[in-house]
Amino acid sequence: xxxxxxxxxxxxxxxxxxxxxxxxxxxxxxxxxxxxxxxxxxxxxxxxxxxxxxxxxxxxxxxxxxxxxxxxxxxxxxx
Length: 79
Fold this sequence. Notes:
- By secondary structure, the protein is mainly α.
- It has a domain at 3-38.
- Helices cover 77% and strands 0% of the residues.
- It has four helices and no strands.
- The termini are far apart.
């Protein structure tokens, strides 16, 4: 059985289960994987780049825009 077929079969089976205790058991098994997929860590290079940009912004060396300016610019491109 392929991974895709296995996933489809599991989805179908879970959608049909009405037993809350069984669903909670499945959730317990998958909980660590679910939580891990929400985690994201920036690389050191990404952190340095963000720090560099923040320093430029704070020193006035880079331009910033209000939400209204960004929105107006994007809407003007559509025309």
